[in-house]
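Action item from last meeting closed. Structure (150 res):
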């Protein structure tokens, strides 16, 4: 995937005070690449990095789950068909997962941006271990490979 963003897609990244080994520009380019690859058309997506306590609060408030998670995404299409969505990432949880899976933290964060952007676009996967065999997960890994090459 090239680093260029489609003219009709906008991606904004907010890092606040949360540190990330992946730059805001790289996170935005990854999300924009997914939008382009999925032919999303008009889109506005925000990517926000959260601390573990803030992610745990969001997880509890919006999903009814305890503890911090790695990614939460919300998306919808407006009446004109434009995609509007928010992707929330927790670099602290991503770092724990990266160690568990034996992958670099940068790769795991980019995987989460791809994953969250696919959710914004309406893709879903089953819960639990079955998710890694799902069509969404397979698409995610193909897109991640493109992101990592760019």
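Sequence:
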């Amino acid at each position: 995937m090239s680093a260029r963003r489609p003219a009709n897609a906008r991606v904004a990244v907010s890092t606040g005070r949360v540190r990330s080994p992946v730059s805001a520009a790289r996170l935005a380019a990854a999300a924009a690449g997914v939008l382009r690859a999925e032919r999303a058309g008009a889109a506005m997506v925000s990517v926000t990095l959260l601390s573990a306590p803030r992610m745990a609060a969001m997880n509890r408030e919006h999903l009814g789950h305890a503890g911090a998670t790695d990614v939460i995404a919300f998306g919808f299409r407006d009446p004109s068909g434009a995609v509007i969505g928010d992707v929330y990432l927790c670099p602290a949880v991503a770092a724990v997962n990266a160690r568990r899976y034996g992958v670099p933290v940068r790769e795991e964060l980019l995987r989460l941006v791809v994953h969250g952007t696919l959710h914004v676009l309406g893709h879903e996967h089953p819960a639990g271990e079955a998710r890694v065999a799902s069509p969404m997960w397979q698409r995610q890994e193909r897109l991640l490979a493109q992101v990592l090459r760019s």
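Note appended to the action item: The chain is about 45% helix and 20% strand.
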